[in-house]
Amino acid sequence: MSETVITRFAPSPTGYLHIGGARTALFNWLYARGRGGKMLLRIEDTDRERSTQAAVDALLDGLAWLGLDWDGEPISQFARAPRHREVAESMVANGRAYYCYATPEELDEMREKARAEGRPPRYDGRWRDRDPSEAPAGVKPVIRLKAPLEGETIVDDKVQGRIAFPNKDLDDLVLLRSDGTPTYMLAVVVDDHDMGVTHIIRGDDHLTNAARQTLIYQAMDWDVPVMAHIPLIHGPDGAKLSKRHGALGAEAYRALGYLPAAMRNYLARLGWSHGDEEIFSTEQLIEWFDISAIGKSPSRMDFQKLENINGHYMRSTPDDELLAAFRIFLPHVDGGPKVLEWLGRDGNEAKFLFALPGLKERAKTLVELLDSAQYLWVERPLPVDEKAAKILDADARGVLGRLHAAFAALPDWSVTSTEEAVRAFAEAEGLKLGKVAQPLRAALTGRATSPGIFDVLAVLGREESLARIADQAA
């Protein structure tokens, strides 16, 4: 029986879920879910100043919004510090690590000498084989790994291939600081081992760390997990993705009106492919995702492609599901809470759902949906934008006055009856349909563009439609 696949997502709490981190979480989630395995969540919260509860909550919120669930409770790396110390001390007892009493001044001297000789700064191993009885008074030691001095350390990476690191370049790294706190290198290895992690999928900026961490695994006689180091995401200009490229956190993409399923689809395609296909259901992603199909080259963030994929999801998402996503989105944007309040009033949800098929055909994001739907809740007298104001000249207002009378006489009010009435009115007046429909649109929505005008009339209903037309009629 093969072992259960266990992946992990191990972010540092920085106050939000970075989009690169979101993709790493997605890849770990897809790999585990596709193999009946588990994805664990570890918060690397050893930086106590940055690791506030608010920062942790922001991470969990971003993952939850993306629909990436994890197994078990999130694990705090900081809370495991006693276990990390225990392992470091066991390595000293086994002769795989040692106490180093080099002073900060000695370490500075080593660095300066290496710089002067054009070498990378490396610890020179001066306490590697010395007895602690020679220790200077008053110096608290660190614990260093007794790394091999010759040969190579091999990282057999599932994305980057087989990489050999000369051991002479991997010095005796610090495992435990002089104040008894573990270093990142030690904590990661101990946590991954204790959590039973079988596959480490993370950014390729950790590739050098992989060699150093492999040495720690070997020193403890532990199995080294399968490693896959994925290329970083770059901005549209090819430079490493940074704040100047725009939105970075998952919560920013939520506020920009992207759907979680569209984000999962888009992020999966940043570095991974399945033939030429661009659109995947989440079920297909889980079934098809494999580490072997991840490319070595960095991916570029393409906001236009993201918008197009999101537009596809907007159109194909069932109306009730899209309404649910819209409700989740509203608290995070200006004016959203008022719309949420409007949706809660009698009949308004049904009105919105009635309008939604026409609205979602035109909208690529929930922001655009919010904007184009505003005619539903805006109060009379409607604010009229510049283009609509130009349409509503004296002739157009006269047309609206005469059309109002025709509408008022209608025995029933529907998409069909209002369309028939407008066509008959235009013919009787000797006008092209646009000369009637455009002023009507401006009066009903305050804009020059909107969903189909007969849909708008049906959604607003007789009373509200006639009142809006009367407001603009001459």
Automatic annotation (TrEMBL):
Keywords: Aminoacyl-tRNA synthetase, ATP-binding, Cytoplasm, Ligase, Nucleotide-binding, Protein biosynthesis. CDD domains: GluRS_core. InterPro entries: aa-tRNA-synth_I_cd-bd (IPR045462), aa-tRNA-synth_I_codon-bd_sub2 (IPR020751), aa-tRNA-synth_I_CS (IPR001412), aa_tRNA-synth_I_cd-bd_sf (IPR008925), Glu-tRNA-ligase_bac/mito (IPR004527), Glu/Gln-tRNA-synth (IPR000924), Glu/Gln-tRNA-synth_Ib_cat-dom (IPR020058), GluQ/Sye (IPR049940). A motif ('HIGH' region) lies at residues 11-21. GO terms for cellular component: cytosol. It catalyses: tRNA(Glu) + L-glutamate + ATP = L-glutamyl-tRNA(Glu) + AMP + diphosphate. Its EC number is 6.1.1.17. Its main location: cytoplasm. Residues 5-307 form the Glutamyl/glutaminyl-tRNA synthetase class Ib catalytic domain. GO terms for molecular function: ATP binding; glutamate-tRNA ligase activity; tRNA binding; zinc ion binding. It is an enzyme of class 6 (ligase). Belongs to the class-I aminoacyl-tRNA synthetase family. Glutamate--tRNA ligase type 1 subfamily. This is Glutamate--tRNA ligase. The gene is gltX.
